Amino acid sequence: MEPVIVWNPIERVLWGTALSVALFCGLYFIYKGRKKDVLNEKVIMFGLSSLPFGFAFSLLFVSLQVLQIPGTLDLYLDFRGIYPTENPPFLYALFGILNYTSLALGGMFFVFSFEIIYRRTKFLLTVLFAAIVVLVLVLPIIFGSYDLARSVSNFAIIPSQIVVIPIILYLFTKWSRLEFKAVSSFFFFGFLLLMISLILALRAHKLLNFYPLFLSPLLLIAGCAIIILPTAVNPRALQKIPLTYWVIFTVLTIPFFSFIVVIDSIIMIIAPVAEFNIVFIYEILIFIVFIYVMVFLTIRNIRSELRPERINAEKEDKLDILSIFTRPQNLTEEDISFYRENKICLVCKSQLTREIYLCPECDVLYCTKCVSALVALENACWSCFAALDPKKPVKLQLEEKEKLKIVESENIGKDLKIRDNPPDS
């Protein structure tokens, strides 16, 4: 077997950066989850954190694993070596098993968070992922073969991630109202980049000796950045055109992933590699096709809800899972009255107990945490747009200012009408 480029200094630096970004992404979701008062919102945030954590630790062990490969540095500072095929070194096998275990655990905790909310699956998906983790850990010990652990990864861990996680993200989208559906597009395509990053970092792909080593860590950084974006950008930017975000991500990613499948197929035909067989290409192809089937179903769901009869229809009883990332677009008087009468915070939907904030203009209730966040973000009441902190300016977008002007003009018109036509005494 010919030596291939295993790593180089630039790739090592990029992997260090990528792993730091992924760990920060996971910690940030935990931080956001701890600030939530509603159990379901905590569970979703903690579940989301498990995805970047799983990929971060998985790829960390991959980086440590390749350092165990014997080889030499060439004149360009590329480290060239031969991947062990039989009886690999102990540390090489150990880091490989930890790599597979980390990825499976990340998927397991994400699925577990979903099943806490959606109990109809009876935690069967969590049990499935747990069984895969046990197989990865136990099979090499019983049979003394590291190849069995790698087979479990290729034919159980990666396929289960490919199938289960996109379905859950699709359901999260379907169960949320229209103004929240753009949020899931970031999770969907961020996860897609994470999976492609993992696939390109696998030993089978490295043996092709075609893709630049820096591509995999860059994809990991991009995936984490996309996943975390909904919590960092202005929430209102995600509410108005949910279909546009899905279409943009689809148009940008289809050519790239199609290119990967075509190149892999051509290389396998022209210069076949022992470990890179037709089954591996089929897995990648099925993964990409399945992802875009889910994307098609999501776009169809959004288009159906954009129809006038659906928009004007009575609101459906939905979980609004994604509402924790953004602000509702159309608050009705009934909504506001419901929150006020039942002493529920308008933002986080938690039951208010002792410390509350009462809007001085419209009497809408907020919890202290949410009002502090709103003051820092825009300092405007969600109901009447009045300043929550009178000492600070209100940061409203133009459309909301226009809406406020319309409300004020209507009130002035009513006052003038009453003056011109006073009621009979």
- Provide the number of structural domains: 2
Q: Please give the largest β-sheet.
A: 3 strands, antiparallel
Cα end-to-end separation: 103 Å
- The secondary structure category is mainly alpha
**Rounded average pLDDT:** 80
Q: What helical percentage do the residues reach?
A: 55-70%
Q: Which quaternary structure do these chains form?
A: single chain
Based on CA atoms alone, the radius of gyration comes out at 26 Å
Give helix and strand order, one letter per element, not per position. Answer: EHHEEHHHHHHHHHHEEHH
Number of strands: 5
Low-confidence stretches: 311-317, 411-420
The strands making up the biggest β-sheet line up spatially as 1-3-2
What does this entry look like structurally?
It is a single chain. The protein has two domains: 302 residues, no CATH class; 91 residues, Herpes Virus-1 (2-Layer Sandwich), CATH 3.30.40. It has 14 helices and five strands. The strands form two sheets. It has a three-stranded antiparallel sheet with strand order 1-3-2. A two-stranded antiparallel ribbon has the order 4-5. About 4% of the residues have low confidence.
Write the layout of secondary structure elements.
Elements: E1 4-7, H1 9-34, H2 39-66, E2 71-73, E3 79-81, H3 90-117, H4 124-143, H5 146-174, H6 181-201, H7 203-206, H8 215-228, H9 242-270, H10 278-305, H11 308-311, H12 333-341, E4 356-358, E5 365-367, H13 368-377, H14 398-420
Antiparallel strand pairs: 1-3, 2-3, 4-5
